[in-house]
Amino acid sequence: MAELSPVNATGTLTEAQYETLAHPQAPDGVIGDPEQGVFYKSGNQIGIVGTLTALVRGFPYFANGGFLLSPDLTGAARTDLVVLRLDRANGYTVRAAIRKGTPGAGAPAPVMGTAPSDLWELPIGEYDVASGAVGATRLRAWFIGDDGQILVRNGARPPHAPARRIREVDTGRTYESTGTSWLVVLDDAGDLTLPLAGGWAAGINHLTRINGEGRLAISPQRTGGNVAEGVTVNLGTLPAGTRPRRAFEVPGRTVSGNADITMLVSVNGVISLRFWNAGVTTGAFCLFPPFTWPIA
Q1: Residue 7 above 80 pLDDT?
Q2: In sequence order, what E strands does 133-290 have?
């Protein structure tokens, strides 16, 4: 088969050839700010916001003033998906459409076919149907920023693709896809502290979360009653978003009394201290080296 460059004598492209070339350079998604409206509930209809613009496999979409879609309100309770649908068999048109769900199965998956006659659907939202009425709605769209970056919020993410990056604007995290899972590559939660259990204080209490890792530097002081040798007590609980993938231990000692301490950090965030060969008295300090861990 002969090579094609230019594609033909006039240099024009078919829609299929255009998609092959344009899609890798133009990520799929709604164009604009993740805080903007995309769709809405209007009685028992679904409205498409008039300013909605998007890219679907490199093909542009304009809502052109907005309009209403009429869901099927019959049958058992279910969840439907609102999509922008590329119809390759119908002139490569892109139109807003509803993919009807199956009762008890959650929202249906969008069709993302690659054959010349297949549909390809960009999800933008979902809604519940029950008792002949439209219920709650939820965002499913992701967004394309000024530089082609993929912006997401409310947990709505594009499909996995190796090395694909997304910025989660409501958490401040940037993720990269391995092809099957999302890994944090950029994140800084600022200066945090470990919330302490009763009976403890800490002059040094610095907790951070940076780029998928937690770090804690702490020198707790016992302000409650004495703790006997061999007893395990609760020091505090790591806030959500800083908890480890796996439990681990950190060795330490009391400043006076020569008690060996094992700090256990659990996956639920609970940090406990166990005192060996001696207890800890009221007012005594415990020393631990600063430590880091991968965040779940």
Answers
A1: no
A2: 133-139, 143-144, 150-152, 165-168, 173-177, 182-186, 200-210, 213-222, 232-237, 248-254, 260-265, 270-276, 286-287
